[in-house]
């Protein structure tokens, strides 16, 4: 079952047999649906408005006024027509279109076109146009004239090239801007990493006890004492002497 939730009303008018009414569902907010009620329960009412069926919760309904709808009128008229009644189906199609019953109008005019393929009223009502003496759809007529469709719009090939060139240029601009932004982001990230590495190195120097007393326990030019701060005294184990090349000259 098709459903739509757009609040709208079927336009009411005068039919050949008199005033046409409809089932009307009034909502508490002031809106109104006009059509033919298909089903009504304690919680929901569904109403056929011609182009679809609308379901409305009863909690939102203010009141319901039942009457004879344009859909009822259409069905009655359609049943009275013979399958080859060209004038009858043409008139019914126009009546349905006037009363906002687009689906029913299309059905009636389709029957007209089946009986008379070149009927201008039916062709136009169904969206056909005449080009070079032939009926065709609007898209076929544009294509026959050499138009091309770009972004849902028909235009000349020259205009289409301009649009496509502009779109290509815009895409190139966006790509260049995106690359520039990425390069700038990469640069900032590299700078932040370098600054963090420098900060960690500085912190390591501040807490390294060997850097404070001038010693290198891991070797370098040799193991052991590399130099002694002024005023520092060292007690050596018995039988051990400081090599001459590592003696602190300040001792």
Describe the SSE topology:
Blueprint (H helix, E strand, L loop, with lengths): L13 E2 L2 E2 L3 E5 L4 E9 L3 E5 L4 E5 L3 E5 L4 H11 L5 H13 L3 H14 L4 H6 L2 E4 L2 E4 H7 L3 E3 L2 E3 L1 H51 L1 H5 L38
Antiparallel strand pairs: 1-2, 3-4, 3-7, 4-5, 5-6, 8-9, 10-11
CATH topology of the largest domain: Serine Threonine Protein Phosphatase 5, Tetratricopeptide repeat
**N-to-C series of helices and strands:** EEEEEEEHHHHEEHEEHH
The name of the CATH architecture of the largest domain is Alpha Horseshoe
Low-confidence blocks of residues? 1-20
Q: What Rg, in angstroms, do the CA atoms define? A: 45 Å
Largest sheet: 5 strands, antiparallel
CATH class of the largest domain: Mainly Alpha
How many strand elements? 11
What's the total helix number? 7
Neighbour order of strands in the largest sheet: 6-5-4-3-7
> What is the overall pLDDT average?
78
In whole angstroms, the N-to-C terminal distance is 104 Å
Give me some keywords for this one.
251 residues, SH3 type barrels, single chain, two-stranded antiparallel sheet, five-stranded antiparallel sheet, Serine Threonine Protein Phosphatase 5, Tetratricopeptide repeat, disordered N terminus
């Amino acid at each position: 079952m098709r459903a739509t939730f757009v609040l709208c009303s079927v336009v009411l008018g005068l039919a050949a047999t008199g005033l046409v009414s409809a089932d009307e569902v009034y909502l508490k907010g002031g809106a109104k649906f006009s059509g033919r009620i298909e089903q009504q329960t304690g919680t929901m009412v569904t109403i056929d408005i011609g182009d679809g069926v609308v379901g409305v919760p009863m909690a939102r309904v203010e009141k319901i006024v039942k009457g004879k709808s344009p859909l009822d009128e259409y069905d009655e008229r359609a049943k009275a027509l013979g399958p080859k009644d060209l004038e009858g189906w043409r008139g019914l199609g126009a009546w349905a279109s006037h009363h906002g019953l687009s689906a029913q109008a299309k059905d009636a005019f389709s029957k007209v076109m089946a009986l008379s393929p070149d009927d201008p009223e039916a062709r136009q009502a169904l969206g056909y146009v005449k080009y070079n003496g032939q009926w065709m759809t609007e898209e076929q007529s544009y294509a026959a004239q050499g138009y091309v469709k770009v972004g849902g719009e028909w235009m000349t090939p020259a205009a289409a090239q301009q649009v496509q060139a502009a779109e290509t240029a815009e895409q190139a601009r966006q790509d260049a801007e995106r690359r520039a932004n990425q390069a700038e982001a990469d640069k900032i990230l590299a700078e932040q990493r370098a600054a963090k590495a420098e900060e960690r190195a500085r912190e390591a120097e501040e807490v390294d006890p060997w850097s404070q007393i001038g010693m290198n326990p891991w070797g370098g030019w040799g193991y052991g004492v590399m130099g002694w701060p002024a005023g520092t005294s060292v007690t050596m184990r018995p039988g051990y002497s400081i090599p001459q090349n590592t003696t602190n000259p300040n001792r």
